[in-house]
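Tutorial, part two.
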Amino acid sequence: MLKTLADNVFSFDVEWIPDPQSGRILHGVSPGDDPESIREAFESLWSAARKEGDPADYQPYLKTILCRIVSLAGILRERVPGGEVNLKLVSLPVDPGDPSKSGEAVILSSFMKSVGRRKPQLVGFNSAQADVPIIVQRAIVHGLAGMGFSERPAKPWEGVDYFDARNSEYNVDLADALGQFRDRPSLHQAATLSGIPGKIEVSGDSVAEMWLQGKLREIVAYNEFDAFTTHLLWARVAHFSGLLGSEQYEREQELVRLLLEEEISAGKTHLEKFVAEWDRLLELTGQS
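Running the prediction step on this input gives:
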């Protein structure tokens, strides 16, 4: 299980869609920013990835380099001098309504610059196999510098390494911590059975269609749900691993509650659904 707890922890999740530009470059799809042209680009990528016998409307999982990141959200946990813990919700793009702040390169640069400066312990679900690789691949596609995120120590114990999930304590994949191969639960399964909200109304399969409908703000909201889910599951695994005592684990949940209340008061009323589902699941699992 988990071995160490860093002063800074970032429990995060990334949302992506098929990259229209990949369809244009690899499959000769005509350029265009209208929904039909973008849908045609999506379809060219899905069609190339389908296997014989797949339904004509099947949307297979694409290699991450063929996809475009549209949202990244996480809970930043900082332990300040004196041992107190602060939680902060981080959402990219900062303003989904501003195209200049919603580009993939802007999201990637903001993430890598912040991570490169703070060097937090990254926590995700299937992040070693998907979230971290797509960040790396798409940053390279855009020709971006790693800004500290890409730095690697000569040996795992000599510093922060985000590219060696097997040996580094700074790339924590909860899916790997909970099981291997066939025994790996989904995030929704692991969370809801533990009394933590999982998928609420939206799933990852819905994101491409939401994007076509111009619903970036709703995608970011869904992404924030997954960030809170990931952090609460991390806290539970950290408690099991002995990194958080029982009182500390209870306090962590209180801090998440307070953060949810603050964000709702600041206008993010969609998070009310997360609180309601959390209360429902706690009662259902006998933990309320």
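The beta strands are 8-18, 67-79, 85-92, 121-124, 171-173. In part three we will examine how such features are distributed along the chain.
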